[in-house]
Specification:
alpha/beta; binds iron/sulfur cluster; binds FE2/S2 (inorganic) cluster
Length: 894
């Protein structure tokens, strides 16, 4: 782009054509006051505070909306400008209520700050405050629009960043204010309570509702969100060592670009609850009672070592956590493998994606891991399958909505339900559950028939296409239509949209936890390969991660079958490398995953389980079965931050620090490695998990002692090639692609990627005793099983019931009305919930939100893995529905 030269305040400046005067000034260290500008929003020139003067022409202009021109001579602080700016502020203040002293924004109000900088104090203008009522019925946001200066940042945040459209300008002129449709309260509007508008509002017009404290934080510190795999950058405000508010970071290059979702913004109040664990506990005479750290660690060390001596290392198992840091998962699995000699290691995200990750790793030989979300806004077409990111990972939802609505990128959504993304899509494929594999193969077959592939590319970089294409030729579209419930026309339409384009696939738990998940993923990898959609920007497979450090936990080898760096345990060369470094002999045999751990505990073969940061009784299927299995153990050690269903059964409880109370690193779903520092101290005697593990190493007389987090990081950097950039300068970095294959290198170097043969899944046979298919999924207010969000006062105060969604047709057939309570039963258990009727839901389907009522939905699912492809099949199950009469409603959860 052409460079332009100009002068600002006597300083010669060069910048690309099209740059605004404001940005040119800011990039050169010249500050101009602003109120309606934000780097992530389109400039609108609403407040006029950023006015500057062109000395040559005498023109006064808003610098945020005026591009530089050659040889401009700009003054940002001339007497004329200062006079105008003061007048603008005086007018705004005259329109403002006189309640600054009690305003919750206090010294952070930008209007007040700028007024002070400009020396504007008492206003001699006739005051014209615009009083409006305070809106504070919801537990998240307070609106006091009498303090609104009409900068429009909230509306632009709502439209441009989170693409919800809950608010817009209402009325005109003096009376104009941001409002919902028909001025409804926020909780009755489409607002998702992401709070993005609040964090951008420059005055006290929008503020966070705080249930425990008032006033401004004493300290603000940057960290990373403790909830989902997006890993949003946050700024946490604290008073007296307690987190009192959370806002998005406004740095330009973060993954969340100044947005958050309701969980990140408002649910971190769970960190302050009285159910936090504050001292070690040991079970004595059947009761958990406080103990010193030395006593607790002695019981743990002696117990583990003596059980190993008596029953061998396979009688021990270790469940790490997708919520604990990279460093903590690394030393956790090291304790299992090196000190206690077992590969029985897993982490809490087993059910989420392990089988699918293994398949992708195997097929792409570990390549194509880095997937910046910004690529979605550059994509040619996006295909979302089995995912509702607007609920599960809302910031990914924002990317997708922006891609569609703002960038005009076509979006295909395949989902049995009409999810929040459907209204943004070019095509909705309302597919029957379990039939994604058949649908993907059918679309590939249509493209193959149209010869929509590059034979030269396929010859040069792939193998197995002949067998694959034979399979495609025999795909029977009529049969697929019957299995998927999609008309052939719809599948043809999908092929029309895809033809000639490289695809960005967004894959969620609908595939990753589905019974035929790996088959569907194999079919999808074939389609991605045929359409050249792997190995580049704005294309490939974006796997959604539910937990914040899901990726990091796998990368650190908190898994039964691979070592740190996702390196295979049964590769002799790799194992030897680790044996030399850790000075130990490693078993090549994969250990037990969490399901097998439970099964072995049921058979009394597993004697001890060490759980760090997980609550399997709430997060896994069949909670009663899990409790019984845990009760069979000789030693259950639970290290956690909260008192949970699982700590209640433990023999020893070790109180850990939450992410905001320790340093560490999370790796997000893009492959972004984000290190952070503590914001506050842990409560009571709680300690960071890595410190607890390190103390335990000492108690077990292991020779290696880590005296700091940096020492653990140094070992990871040294031994795990993907993480050589870990924690450098405390900055974020990216994992390194360490694959041997160089995907589609122009020289044709590297290994060929192979097509798998087409595998056809059969018709699902319906069970006449359990005629409905229940889909289990997230609502944005709870993360996963809801252990942490269930403790949030704000989320609780919002009072969601987690109603079961049922189609209006089925509702009428079962004589149900809105709000009735039903019993939902599967062969494995039952639960009861209120119902809500959905017109657009396919008859025969019901949707049960997870995370509510102690995550009771998991009672319906069978723990044991289902299906030939080793996918856990926890996403759906067959159920029956019965209406409960009033006298039968004894327990509808709480
Ligand atoms: S509510 Fe706040 S952000 Fe919205 S227009 Fe008013 S002052 Fe600006
Ligand atoms: S909280 Fe979020 S969704 Fe609601 S109005 Fe503000 S920006 Fe829009
Ligand atoms: S999208 Fe995920 S990481 Fe971001 S604020 Fe929400 S829960 Fe936190
Ligand atoms: S910042 Fe430029 S007009 Fe408001």
């Amino acid at each position: 782009m052409e460079e332009i030269s100009l002068t600002i305040n006597g300083k010669n400046i060069n910048c690309p054509q099209g740059t605004s005067i404001l940005n040119a000034a800011l990039e050169n260290g010249i500050k101009i006051p602003t109120l309606c500008h934000h780097p992530h929003l389109e400039p609108v020139g609403a407040c006029r505070l950023c006015i500057v003067e062109d000395e040559k022409s005498g023109r006064i202009m808003a610098s945020c909306v005026t591009p530089v021109s050659p040889n401009m001579v700009i003054q940002t602080e001339s007497p004329t400008i200062k006079k105008h700016r003061i007048n603008i502020i005086r007018l705004m203040m005259a329109n403002h209520p006189e309640s600054c002293i009690v305003c919750s924004q206090g010294n952070r109000c930008e209007l007040r700050q700028i007024a002070a900088e400009l020396g504007v104090g008492q206003i001699d203008l006739y005051p014209m405050p615009h009083y409006t009522g305070l809106e504070e019925a919801n537990p998240f946001i307070i609106r006091d629009l009498s303090k609104c200066i009409l900068c429009g940042k909230c509306i632009r945040a709502d439209h441009e960043l989170v693409v919800v459209g809950a608010i817009d300008y209402n009325l005109r002129g003096f009376k104009s204010r941001p409002a919902t449709v028909h001025e409804m309260p926020l909780e009755k509007s489409s607002c998702t309570f992401c709070g993005t508008c609040v964090s951008l509002c420059p005055t006290g017009a929008l503020s966070l509702k705080n249930t425990r404290y008032v006033g401004s934080p004493q300290k603000e510190s940057s960290t990373i969100c403790g909830f989902c795999g997006v890993g949003c950058s946050l700024v946490m405000g604290s008073v007296d060592g307690q987190i009192i508010e959370v806002n998005p970071s406004h740095k330009e290059d973060t993954v969340n670009r100044s947005t958050l979702c309701v969980r990140g913004h408002f649910a971190h109040d769970f960190l302050n609850v009285s159910e936090r664990l504050t001292s070690p506990l040991i079970r004595r005479d059947g009761e958990l009672s406080p103990a010193t750290w030395d006593e607790a660690l002695e019981v743990v060390a002696k117990g583990l070592i003596s059980i190993k001596k008596k029953n061998g290392p396979q009688s021990l198992a270790f469940l790490g956590s997708s919520k604990c840091t990279v460093e903590e998962n690394y030393i956790f699995q090291k304790m299992a493998r090196v000190i206690l000699g077992t590969n029985n290691v897993d982490n809490g995200s087993y059910g989420s994606e392990k089988a699918v990750i293994n398949l992708i790793n195997e097929k792409l030989i570990g390549g194509d891991r880095i997937k910046p979300l910004s690529g979605l806004e550059e994509a040619e077409i996006i295909f979302v399958i089995g995912a509702d990111p607007t609920q599960s990972v809302p910031v990914v939802g924002y990317y997708l909505k922006r891609a569609s609505r703002i960038k005009g990128i076509p979006l295909i959504v395949a989902d049995p339900r009409k999810t929040g993304l459907v209204s943004f899509s070019s095509l909705w494929l309302p597919i029957a559950p379990h039939s994604d594999c058949a649908m993907i193969n059918a679309i590939a077959a249509i493209l193959y028939k149209r010869k929509s592939y590059d034979a030269g590319f396929i010859r040069k970089f792939t193998e197995g296409f002949d067998l694959y294409s034979d399979g495609l030729s025999s795909v029977d579209l009529k049969k697929v239509s019957r299995v998927t419930g999609l008309s052939i026309e719809l599948m043809e339409k999908a092929a029309d949209l895809i033809e000639g384009k490289k695809i960005a696939f967004v894959i969620g738990h609908g595939i990753m936890q589905q019974r035929y998940g790996t088959l569907a993923m194999d079919a999808l990898l074939n389609l991605a390969l045929m359409t050249e959609s792997l190995g580049g920007d704005g294309r490939g497979i974006y796997l959604l991660a539910r937990e914040n450090n899901q990726m990091g936990a796998w990368d650190m080898g908190a898994a039964p079958d691979f070592l740190p760096g996702r390196q295979s345990l049964n590769n002799d060369i790799i194992r030897k490398h680790w044996e030399q470094n850790w000075e130990v002999k490693l078993s090549p045999d994969p250990g037990l995953n969490i399901i097998r751990m439970i099964e072995e505990a049921e058979k009394h073969n597993l004697k001890a389980l060490y759980i760090m940061g997980e609550n399997p009784i709430r997060s896994l299927p069949q909670p009663k079965r899990i409790s019984n299995a845990l009760n069979n153990l000789e030693l259950l050690i639970v290290q956690d931050i909260l008192d949970t269903e699982t700590t209640q059964l433990a023999d020893v409880v070790l109180p850990g620090a939450a992410f905001s109370e320790k340093g560490g690193t999370f790796t997000n779903l893009e492959g972004r490695i984000q290190s952070f520092e503590p914001v506050v101290s842990p409560p009571g005697e709680a300690k960071p998990d890595w410190e607890i593990l390190d103390m335990l190493f000492d108690t077990m007389h292991y020779f290696k002692k880590y005296s700091s987090l940096q020492e653990i990081r140094a070992e990871i950097i040294n031994l795990v090639p993907m993480y050589t950039e870990l924690g450098r300068n405390g900055e974020e970095s990216w994992i390194k692609e360490c694959s041997n294959i160089r995907l589609f290198h122009p020289d044709g170097e590297g290994e060929l990627i192979h097509f798998s043969p087409v595998i056809k899944t059969g018709d699902e046979r319906s069970d006449k005793d359990y005629p409905f298919t229940a889909i289990l999924g997230s609502l944005r207010y709870h993360l996963g099983g809801g252990t942490r969000t269930g403790y949030s006062d704000r989320i609780k105060a919002f009072g969601l019931k987690g109603e079961v969604e049922i189609s209006s047709d089925d509702g009428a057939r079962l004589n149900l009305k809105e709000g009735d309570t039903v019993r939902i039963s599967s062969p494995h258990g039952s639960t009861s919930r209120e119902v809500t009727m959905k017109k657009e839901l396919r008859p025969g389907l019901v949707f049960i939100p997870i995370g509510f009522h102690n995550n009771d939905a998991m009672q319906l699912i069978n723990l044991t893995q289902l299906g030939e492809a080793d996918s856990p099949g926890w996403k759906e199950c067959s159920v029956k529905i019965e209406r409960l009469e009033e006298y039968q409603i004894t327990d509808t959860g709480f």
